[in-house]
Amino acid sequence: MQLYYSPTSPYVRKVMITLHETGQLDDVTLIEGSTKPTNPLSGLAAQNPLMKIPALTRADGPTLYDSRVICAFFDDRAQAGLYASGSRRFEIMTLEATADGILDAALLMTYEGKLRPEEARWDDWVEAQWTKIASACAALDSRWMGHLNGPLDMGQIAVACALGYVDFRHDARNWRKGCDALAKWYAEFAQRPSMLATVPPEGM
Fold first, then answer.
1. Which of 17, 147, 167, 193 would you label with 82, given CA atoms 20 to 30 Å apart?
2. Contact (CB, 8 A) for 77 and 69
3. Which residue has the higher pLDDT, 30 or 39?
């Protein structure tokens, strides 16, 4: 299997952490390259018509894309139980959706600052994205700590990747303000070997 990959992509990081946590890292060859909405990775369109990473090519089936699909595939392949079953499964999926919503908003902020011409940037748009992130962090801090402090699952991995990306690109915003329980949880979760092995490189 081949994984189209960038070390700075938070969606790729979800997949990489899943590989680490389920012992499948050696089963995947990484195809590294940077991709932007305006300049997708060469050859990626043949694997993912949306031209986004991550994308996972397989010898015995079509390419899988979208981090949620790929993470679910590896969880099923390893029978790791990261999505659990019963009602808890839907809690995990909701947490993952919340985390991906944080990532979506944070990426839009990043693109606005890095890709859009300065004279065309829209400050109100950026602030609206940050409002979503702050609201999601507040909800995690007030409603979800019992789950986050439970057994490892994909919801926790997704939330950690989302918070890590906000730190990586928007650290000055300080998502931790007013979210003491979430900040404490993240500080501990960030010390997992899988998290330490996938920290995005500075300067990229």
1. 167
2. no
3. 30
